[in-house]
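Contributing new complexes? Match this layout with nicotinamide-adenine-dinucleotide.
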Amino acid sequence: MVTTEVAVIGTGWCGGIRAETLAKSALVDKLHICEILPERLEEVRALTNPATATLDYQDIVANPAISVVYISTTPEQTHYPIARDCLKAGKHVLLEKPIALEFWEADELIALAKSNRVKFTIGYSQRFNPKIAYAKKSIAEGKLGNVVNVMVSRHLSRNLGKKIANRVKLSPAAMESTHDLDFVFWLLEPAKPVKVYSQGAYGYMKELNGSYDCMWSTVTMDDGTLVVVGGGWNLPPSYPNYCGTWIEITGTEGALILDDTARDHWLNTVSGGTQYPMSTMPGEHVDHVFAGQMGPETIHFLEAVLKDGPVMVEPAHARQVMEAYSAADLSADCGEPISLPLSNYSISKLADLKAAR
Ligand SMILES: NC(=O)c1ccc[n+]([C@@H]2O[C@H](COP(=O)([O-])OP(=O)(O)OC[C@H]3O[C@@H](n4cnc5c(N)ncnc54)[C@H](O)[C@@H]3O)[C@@H](O)[C@H]2O)c1
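Output block (do not edit by hand):
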């Protein structure tokens, strides 16, 4: 049986899920983990029994036996330098979203992967949500006819919103709706986004870090399909990292409505009150099964490497998504619709916006 040596860099929430998944897989010859927080490194070492555990990611880069690397670090500024070093060293890389913070960084990573002939993908886990996969299949089979409109409304609990928005000045569009923009553009392929009009509303988060609580973006596709994506992170504290999503897709021959709010399973305890377990965006291990998308996504990438198959998310697609949420940020700031691809004028306005933040 073909197996390989793999590494996870950054074993916090998501990296911990990836490391546990890989530790259980027969496709993994040896697991290596890297984390800068010594206590967390020890916690994950105890859970996954890796061959090596290090505080310095350069140990992973320098180890020629490691062929596949999952990069799950925060803050998001770490994505580019770590991915660059791993790709340069000839490793296949799954990088959590966002692909990068600057367009030139994304372009360099894409070019490096191409020139070194290694696989490179971005962790847009929602593509492994069976409901989203069903939407893709239904549209491809023509069940809905021509898609006319897609609406996605996603809300996270404020504890997660606080965690994200405290570490990096990225908006709900960039950090949350990014998943929805990714899968909606995937559902609607080969149509491409050409215009974004977005607005944000302040509330609970403003005092904490200046961020909107919620952003709604309307995206026009080049075939006229209308996409409306809303992302918010101000739900009251609920099941750790609760996420509720509602999706409506209408077409000329049918409609598909997807309830992804996790209300179909309900835990009610005297100490904790009402909870909706298994409701986080990546999902979670439940004994012998994985409830959610990050487990299957982790194994899919490993199989793509071992079988030399296609990755699920092409990095150029992630770059297109990056343009769309950047356009949303700019649109919310200036109150105007923004055309895609971004013009040089829009890119320079975005630089001003970032500098002002
Ligand atoms: N696909 C999804 O559903 C999903 C969900 C949540 C987060 N994410 C993305 O995954 C990434 C990780 O998010 P998280 O919530 O797991 O973050 P986290 O903060 O829980 O974990 C990140 C870990 O990286 C470690 N780290 C930082 N710099 C490092 C370095 N140089 N070397 C090794 N370790 C380092 C930190 O100490 C931390 O433990 C984020 O970029 C986020 O956008 C994806």
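Reviewers usually confirm one structural detail per submission. For this one: The CA atoms of residues 143 and 254 lie 7 Å apart.
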